[in-house]
Amino acid sequence: AEPTYEELEVLAGVLNIRVADLLVCPMQEHEEVVVTRSADSRGRARELGTYRLAPLARTPHQPDLKTFDLEVLDSAVPGETLSCGLHTFVYHFGSEPVEFSWEGCNCGRKFTAELWPGDSAYIAPATRHRFSVLASQPIGRSRPQTVRSEAGPGAPARVNPNGEGRGDGRRLFVVRIPGHLYKDTLLEFATYSRAGRERVGAETIRWYN
Question: I need a labelling partner for 109 at 20 to 30 A (CA). Which of 4, 35, 51, 102 fits?
């Protein structure tokens, strides 16, 4: 028989550990494959000032792994600043280019690049970044399957590599993964004094004798 929560509390007290360390969450049959419908994702989307963030398929057994359909709205002139403690991978599966800008964590310099349909990017944890409407991109135009070449005016249009399966507009597939910052690491970090947490990643010399 499975132990009761009260029994787990007693055992955790004897072993001097958390009750959570004794809990087992087996994978159920319906969790082996998770299918999330587009209508459900769009229904749970968060509407920010300049983005629409729709959560994609998730599993409770990987709570730190996040996937999103991020749409850059016409109001992103510029887009809101984003920052995340996870590793972020981005793939442009839409039909319109996006201006991607970020600030270097160490040097403080600002950088800008254009993301066109089919382009991808990696963003390191805690890097401040944003997605915006291109200054040269008209707002409210129809979304053709061919897009203007980044080579400049007069250059031939190129075929959208996403083909008929593309998203409409400025659509980004975003994946966030924890890397080595697992849940246990973050839980330990949460026990530190608020006044000293910034020192965890900022100390470069020995501060004790």
Answer: 51
Q: How far apart are CA 118 and CA 93, in angstroms?
A: 6
CA distance 149 to 50: 25
For the chain, what is the mean pLDDT? 85
- Which pTM does this prediction carry? 0.74
Task: Say if residue 191 is exposed, middle or buried (CB neighbours under 10 Å; 0-12, 13-18, 19+).
Answer: exposed
The whole-angstrom separation of Cα 24 and Cα 209 is 42
Q: Helix or strand or coil: residue 41?
A: helix
Q: What angle do CA 165, 76, 106 make, to 5 degrees?
A: 100
pLDDT-derived band at 157 (thresholds 50, 70, 90) equals: low
pLDDT digits (tens, 9 = 90+) for 76-94: 999 999 998 899 999 999 9
Contact 38, 71 (CB under 8 A): no
> Which residue do the tokens 């608020």 mark?
194
Cis peptide before 78 (omega within 30 of 0): yes
pLDDT at position 140: 53
